[in-house]
Amino acid sequence: MTKDSKPELAARRAFLVKLAGAASCAGAAVGAATLGLTPAVSAKTAPAADGGSFPTKDYDWTKHQWGFGVDATKCIGCLRCVEACKRENDVPANAHQFRTWVERYVHLEGEDQVRIDSQQDPVNIAASGSEKTFRFANRYKDAKVYKAFFVPKLCNHCTHPACVQVCPVGATYKSEDGVVLIDHDYCIGCRYCVQACPYGARYFDEERGVSDKCTWCYHRITKGLQPACVEVCPVGARIFGDQKDKESPISLFIRNNRVQVLRPESGNAPNVFYVGIDKEVN
Amino acid sequence: MPKHIVRLILLIVAVLALAAIAAPLLTVDSFYRYGHYRADSVAQIAAQEPVYQTPRYCYGCHTERRAQWSAGNHKSVTCEVCHGPARGHPQSGRLYIPTDTVKLCTQCHEAMPGRPRTQPQIEVAAHSGGQQCAICHNPHTPKISAAAAKVSGDAAAGEQSAAACAGCHGDDGNSPNDTWPSLAGQNAAYLARILAAYQSGDQTDPVMTPLAKALSDADIQNLASYYAGLSCKPTAGGKPVGDVAAGKALAKNCAACHGETGVGANPAWPILAAQKPGYLVNVLKAFKAGLRKDPMMAGVSRGLSESDIANLAAYYAAQSCPSTK
């Protein structure tokens, strides 16, 4: 039999060759993952590759375990933290993408439901006069307010982060010092993590095509500075520190207050500890 | 073993071998070093430069602000809260100076449900009628200090002591000389504050320092009351030291404290209208050079050129005296 006489056989042969090629490629990928994972386990306990500290020469991430506190009884809703965060971290200057935000909870007399707004509410944007600056409109000035308070929010840097679990490419991870970070070079922009976060802490940056969120200003805390939002808070409503240091601001905050975390039932085990919030806050 | 099984095993071995070769080629070095992620990305994130620099950074140059700010009620409000991030400021020389202090201050101090009771809060309309906060409050130490308190001296007794001052400041408090300031009609609280500053050494002058040191606290109050009660005379004609129109444009930046025509609302700060132009030039130069110390004036005079100073002096000198209080 020749190729000329049986054209359908030639077509089948060509198909099988292609199939074999595709199969070996897929096998290689699976094999790579299997083989690659083996050294990872052993490397976990090994010291940093360059012998010194990691990730920078002045900062060893095995010596820290960061934590964040929010004292909602002190927050005045001035939103300096929100503006500082945007500038510090190059967050798009608009009214719908935030790494940190502040919510206002208002109970009016005679109402069962709490009213909640944040700085991105259109009424508040109108009061600030632009989408680049933020302020709370005094919209409840003349209302009969039974109870009201402000609550700053940010990424909880969970001990068991759902966002990390769902990432298909290892672009988001939990660092050794307790910070959930995003590798923007590896992020493929699938937004699973944005969906997975029970706190709505992540946003998608359409321009760069990647997910983004609070890093506790990792570039600052690794240089001995406070996160920008903590730095500018005029009333000390935001507390940051090293949980391994028993005298750090966050350790004292946790020890001296009855703290709670948001949505404990989600099993994420957040590392942002709140004081002075109601049951409606989650 | 059947031939097709052998082929299958060979194929699997080949695939695994290929995988072993491909794995290191397809995975970046730092992936899996600490876990299922690229360790290099941690270092990349940590390498970003901070934008907000902390007050310690600002003090590197602005030492004069530290004592004033850290003693006041705004000590928990760091420089960058109002002035914006400091990165790039020393190089560009530019810094955000908030001009709309009503908007700035009410961001924290507007009475609003939800703010803790401990936070000082105001309703702007009732508190100030909507005028700029900086007219009465120094944002760096917002509490209105004793300096602005009413001066309760005896003008008649002040007139006796003033005999020693008349040589330079004029019999009626209007200086005969371009270099020395007229005192007639000046704010009493300002006069008392400056005399006290000469006395304590916060401000020095070869002539004024020894004179002020000889005064008692009561003398200062009496003198301040006496001069505040005299009537100011417009500066005599003669060649203006600068361009009045240009000075007027510049003076907009001073209006928050000194008023549009050099008559401010806060008694702790001087009236500039109809002041001697030569004196105004000297004082601004002294602030600029750091010889006269005032955190607010040091900042605003730093950006003024020689001709700016002359124009400003000409403008204020040409303004008419405040109407008698």
Provide a descriptive summary of the structure in words.
The complex is a heterodimer of chains A (about 280) and B (about 325). Helices cover about 30% and strands about 20% of the residues of chain A. Chain A is α+β, with helices and mostly antiparallel strands and about 280 residues long. Chain A has a domain at about 165-170 and about 180-210: Alpha-Beta Plaits, CATH 3.30.70.20. In chain A, strands 11-3-12 form a three-stranded mixed sheet, covered by helices on one side. Chain A is globular. In chain A, about 40% of the residues are buried. The radius of gyration of chain B is 32 Å and the shape is elongated. Chain B has four domains: about 5-45, no CATH class; about 55-145, no CATH class; about 155-230, Cytochrome Bc1 Complex, Chain D, domain 2 (Orthogonal Bundle); about 245-320, Cytochrome Bc1 Complex, Chain D, domain 2 (Orthogonal Bundle). Chain B has helices spanning about 5-25, 40-45, 55-60, 65-70, 80-85, 90, 100-110, 125-130, 155-160, 165-170, 190-200, 210-215, 215-230, 245-250, 255-260, 275-290, 295-300, 305-320. The chains are: A alpha+beta (about 280), B mainly alpha (about 325). Chains A and B meet through helix 1, strand 1, helix 2, strand 4 and strand 6 of A and helix 1 and helix 2 of B.
